[in-house]
Design brief:
With 413 residues, the chain is α/β, with parallel strands linked by helices. The protein has helices at 3-13, 22-35, 54-63, 72-80, 97-105, 115-124, 162-172, 190-204, 232-250, 262-265, 298-302, 389-393, and strands at residues 17-21, 42-47, 66-69, 88-90, 109-112, 130-135, 157-158, 176-180, 212-214, 255-258, 269-280, 285-289, 308-310, 318-324, 332-340, 347-351, 371-376, 379-384. Helix 2 (22-35) packs parallel to helix 3 (54-63) and helix 2 (22-35) packs across helix 9 (232-250). It is an enzyme of class 4 (lyase).
Length: 413
């Protein structure tokens, strides 16, 4: 997308605003399918938690994607967006048995990640196909909050608990049709991922009626020029060869599944905010925008870096700025960034804002959540309205009657 397109969107829909480029999403989907074209059966399940707007889900469905969900609400969104139940995998963590049973009644693929629930569900519903999430005890992820395959993680059934797992399956006679892992986000070392895959292959040998093996996702995307990223083409060649070998050994052509989220939508997203104040202090120059970590929490939560560009003055002289928000506590998007000269009223674009930005937004400080816009076929389409004050108070119950104190009239003596 061009700066002029982004500026036009802010004039039409205001700022702050999230913008998603459908063409970039489509090209990322094709890049991943091309990397694994040597696999007989490939299924990409888009991770809805990255960006769950129903129009984005419809776009994914139109591309031929399945859907990875982690809550019953995401399952319901996926069905509403047109996904067939069998193309949705439900991988919750720490939810009630009742929620898992509700998902099962909707006909989606169940993925269970702990022994207790596995035993309870298998005892009650032995005929319902179940995938098992394994914890391979392999560390991946650029931040401890997004590394989920290590030994201290709450996710998955430990590979050291395989004997117990097999005993549950044997006693319940439940139907295991898939094996799954997810090491975490920001995979940098392909060999580490392949090592974890070998653990998954070894585990799969214990189950004779599998339909698929799900390798999760976590492909790293670049956040700045020259940044490192997962080499999905190299991974595709190596894992395809090994997967096809395993299928030959297993005696059945299985489906290779992935659950990309950030990889598909991160680079497609822009978050646009207007500069309210340019403030010179004794140590730095602050550019304060009409937003904060209530709209883009990743820099404060994960220490993530989002490239920031001045779309109002793309050819201006570069100067150093610390870009901060309007939230009433430390609220920094980027410190000492080299950005084209900023003036009050300029529009700044935060790149890589497609994943885990709106979905993690809040009404902190009672601020409104922004609009979302889809750039599709060179046109801007509003896919979520900007919130209003009515949205802030809509579900609140004003208990003012509790505080109407009746006071006796003062009588002059």
């Amino acid at each position: 997308m061009k700066s002029a397109d982004l500026l036009k969107i802010t004039k039409t829909h205001g700022a702050p605003v999230y913008v998603y480029d459908a063409e970039k999403i489509s090209s990322q989907f094709k890049r991943l399918t091309d990397a694994f074209k040597g696999v007989g059966q490939l299924r990409l399940n888009y991770a809805a938690k990255a960006l769950s707007n129903i129009s984005i889900l419809r776009l994914m469905n139109s591309l031929g994607s399945g859907l990875d969900t982690v809550s019953i609400q995401e399952v319901q969104l996926g069905l509403l967006a047109g996904f067939k139940p069998e193309s949705i995998i439900y991988t919750p963590n720490g939810v009630s048995l009742e929620e898992i049973e509700e998902a099962a009644t909707l006909g989606v693929q169940i993925n269970i990640d702990n022994l207790s629930v596995l035993e309870q569900f298998g005892s009650k519903h032995p005929d319902v196909p179940v995938c098992i999430r394994i914890n391979p005890h392999v560390m991946a992820g650029g931040n401890s909050n997004i590394s989920v395959g290590h030994i201290d993680s709450k996710f998955g059934i430990s590979i050291h608990q395989i004997p117990h797992l097999l005993r549950i399956v044997e006693l319940t006679k439940m139907n295991i049709n898939g094996i799954h892992m997810h090491t975490g986000s920001d995979i940098l070392d392909i060999d580490v991922f392949l090592y974890a895959s070998e653990i998954l292959f070894e585990t799969a040998k214990n189950f004779k009626d599998l339909d698929f093996i799900d390798f999760g996702s976590g492909f790293k995307v670049p956040y700045k020029p020259g940044d490192i990223e997962t080499n999905v083409e190299e991974l595709g060649k190596k894992l395809t060869t090994r997967f096809n070998e395993f299928c030959a050994e297993y005696g059945k052509e299985l489906t290779l599944a992935f659950e990309p989220g950030k990889f598909l939508v991160s680079e497609a997203g822009f978050f646009l905010a207007k500069v309210n104040v340019v403030k010179q202090t004794t140590s730095t120059v602050f550019a304060s925008v009409d937003s904060g970590f209530n709209h883009l929490i990743r820099p404060m939560l994960y220490g993530s870096q989002h490239e920031i560009v001045n779309v109002s003055n793309p050819k201006g002289r570069e100067r150093y700025y610390s870009v901060v928000g309007y939230i009433c506590e430390t609220d920094t998007f980027g410190s000492n960034r080299l950005i084209n000269e900023i003036s009050e009223g300029d529009i700044l674009a935060f790149k890589n804002a497609g994943a885990y930005c709106f979905t993690m937004a809040s009404n902190y400080n009672s601020r409104y959540r922004p609009a979302e816009v889809l750039w599709y076929n060179n046109e801007a389409h509003l896919i979520r309205k900007r919130e209003t004050f009515d949205d802030i108070i809509n579900n609140q119950v004003d208990a003012k009657h509790l505080f109407d104190v009746k006071r006796e009239k003062l009588v002059a003596k």
